């Protein structure tokens, strides 16, 4: 049986996303902002962060896979759904739930840069420190965490626990 120990409360997440939203609003004032959510995990983060950005904003989504049913990334990135909108000349903000190895985001950044966006930045709720296999520059970070495997608030283990209103540490027995 899995057990989940609360780690970051829903209230802490709400406060941090509000702070991030204010900063993004200031940084993108007067710009054509497109927020790209990386499915599936980002759906809760993106919805709550977007409500804190006080600008006319458009949204698009990509779906990628690098985990399967594992707790560590395989390092192989598969694009399951690509963008529906052109991003050439647009200011693109990738919204992620978590950055760990950096392999998925590194791949996404390379594939999106060649499409000619005016700017390309990353916002992530969680950034796992010290485990990046490739360097990733995340401009907007919610929380810096250690190597623990976390679930909730969009993050899953084998498709489960995304619906938790907080981030918890998964302990497997």
What does the secondary structure layout of this molecule look like, with pairings?
Layout: E1 3-8, H1 10-27, E2 33-39, H2 43-50, E3 57-65, E4 78-81, E5 91-99, H3 103-113, E6 119-128, E7 140-145, E8 150-151, E9 167-171
Parallel strand pairs: 2-3, 2-5, 5-6, 6-7
Antiparallel strand pairs: 1-9, 3-4, 8-9
Characteristic terms for this protein:
173 residues; alpha/beta; six-stranded mixed β-sheet; three-stranded antiparallel β-sheet; 3 helices; 9 strands; 21% helix
What does this structure look like?
The structure is a single chain. By secondary structure, the protein is α/β, with parallel strands linked by helices. The protein is 21% helix and 34% strand. The chain has helices spanning 10-27, 43-50, 103-113; strands at 3-8, 33-39, 57-65, 78-81, 91-99, 119-128, 140-145, 150-151, 167-171. The strands form 2 sheets. Strands 4-3-2-5-6-7 form a 6-stranded mixed sheet, with helices on both faces. The protein has a 3-stranded antiparallel sheet with strand order 1-9-8. Helix 2 links the parallel strand 2 and strand 3. Helix 1 (10-27) packs across helix 2 (43-50). The longest helix is centred in the first third of the chain and has 18 residues, at 10-27. The mean pLDDT is 91.
The quaternary organization reads as: single chain
Structural class: alpha/beta
Please state the overall shape, judged from the principal axes of the Cα atoms. Answer: globular
Mean pLDDT: 91
Query: Low-confidence runs (pLDDT<50, min 5 residues)?
Result: none
Q: How much helix, percentage-wise, in residues?
A: 10-25%
Task: Output the helix-strand order.
Answer: EHEHEEEHEEEE
Strands ordered across the widest β-sheet = 4-3-2-5-6-7
Question: Termini distance?
Answer: 6 Å
Number of beta strands: 9
The fraction of residues in strands falls at 25-35%
CA-atom Rg in angstroms? 15 Å
Biggest beta sheet summary: 6 strands, mixed
Total of DSSP H or I helical runs spanning 4+ residues: 3
């Amino acid at each position: 049986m899995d057990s989940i120990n609360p780690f970051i409360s829903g209230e802490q997440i709400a406060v941090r996303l509000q702070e991030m939203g204010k900063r993004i609003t200031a940084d993108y004032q007067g710009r054509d902002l497109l927020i790209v959510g990386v499915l599936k995990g980002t759906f809760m983060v993106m919805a709550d962060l977007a409500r804190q950005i006080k600008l006319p904003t458009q949204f698009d989504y990509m779906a990628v896979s690098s985990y399967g049913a594992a707790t560590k990334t395989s390092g192989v990135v598969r694009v399951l759904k690509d963008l529906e909108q052109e991003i050439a000349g647009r200011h693109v903000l990738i919204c992620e739930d978590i950055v760990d190895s950096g392999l998925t985001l590194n791949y996404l950044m390379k594939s999106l840069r060649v499409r000619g966006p005016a700017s390309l930045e990353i916002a992530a709720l969680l950034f796992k420190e010290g485990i990046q296999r490739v360097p990733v520059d995340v401009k907007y970070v919610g929380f810096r965490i250690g190597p623990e495997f976390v679930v909730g608030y969009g993050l899953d283990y084998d498709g489960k626990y995304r619906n938790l209103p907080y981030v918890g540490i998964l302990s497997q027995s």
